[in-house]
Design a protein that fits this description.
It contains 11 helices and 13 strands. Strand 1 and strand 2 form a beta hairpin. By secondary structure, it is an alpha/beta fold. 39% of the residues are buried.
Length: 303
């Protein structure tokens, strides 16, 4: 239903998801599988059970209430979940005295989300903020995302979309009518490399970027810089030239970090970049300098 969607977080007082103080709504589901993804809980279109090892005291009450025996004991604190058996009944979440279990993914209505967003209307007004839709990929829930944007606009709020750009132009075009800003990630300018890094080619992404620029919407391109993977001079130059050809005024550089690594174990997933060092701001200054030859403004970390 258009009026209902699946989210995994609503983050108030966000500072890097558009101008001013913002409320960011994170929609669940993503068509890409970026190997550096810091929000693995965003990828699946369904709710997911997660185990927070650092909270577990090994009381094992969760084992006793799991009627399907989907939770398995291990030698450490991290419980193993047989996700073929788990039906997300939530009994383990309810009974755990340490809150070591969590379900990522809550079904909500547009009205429920909007009531949370408008709580900070005064901050938006004073600090030129608003609502940002993020994910996952909001284009995976196009009807719900569209209704949220319409509702926010009816309240006079500034609206922004964080997107990989991988989705139907038909849906993106409809959303564009209710958007003030699009923050669009470009993972790699070479389609083959893009597929190796994300599981999909980049043709749809680049075409959607072109079309957004053509309709006159403010678009900021963002580059998550992953060392040795997309930080070559050739890729940076191609991105800069592409941005210049579209009349883009700003590119945000997002240095690689490891902040999402622990989430993978919680979900029983493998983190492919374990041990790769995070980037400091000074390490991406050469990329900033190169991209500054093509666009008026280049920021680091969305600042």
């Amino acid at each position: 239903m258009a009026g209902r969607g699946l989210i995994f977080n609503i983050q108030r007082f966000s500072l890097h998801d558009g101008p001013g103080i913002r409320t960011t709504v994170f929609l669940k589901g993503c068509p890409l599988r970026c190997i550096w993804c810091s929000n693995p809980e965003s990828q699946s279109r369904r709710p997911e059970l997660a185990h927070l090892e650092f909270r577990c005291q090994q009381c094992d009450v969760c084992l006793k209430v799991c009627e399907r025996q989907a939770i398995k004991p291990t030698f450490g604190k991290l419980k193993r979940v047989d996700r073929r058996k788990c039906n997300l009944c939530g009994r383990c979440v309810e009974i755990c005295p340490q809150n070591a279990w969590r379900v990522y993914g809550t079904e909500v209505t547009v009205d429920q989300v909007l009531s949370e967003v408008v709580r900070d209307r005064e901050f938006y007004r004073k600090l030129h903020g608003g609502m940002t839709l993020s994910g996952g990929e909001p284009l995976m829930q196009p009807s719900f995302a569209l209704e949220l944007l319409k509702a926010a606009r009816s309240e006079g709020l500034h609206t922004a979309l964080e997107t990989s750009g991988y989705g139907s132009w038909k849906h993106l075009e409809r959303m564009a009518r209710y958007l003030d800003l699009v923050l669009l990630d470009i993972k790699h300018m070479d389609s083959t490399e893009h597929q190796l890094l994300t599981g999909k080619g980049n043709e749809v992404v680049l075409e959607n970027a072109r079309r957004l620029a053509e309709v006159g919407l403010e678009v900021v391109l963002r580059l998550p810089v992953i060392p040795t993977m997309n930080d070559s001079k050739e890729n940076l130059t191609a991105l800069g030239a592409f941005a210049q050809s579209l009349g883009i005024k700003r590119i945000d550089i997002l240095p690689f970090h490891q902040l999402g690594e622990s989430k993978y174990a919680r979900l029983g997933k493998r983190y492919r970049l374990k041990g790769k060092a995070a980037l400091e701001k000074k390490q991406v200054l050469p990329a900033k300098q190169l991209l500054s030859n093509f666009v008026p403004e280049v920021t680091i970390g969305g600042a």
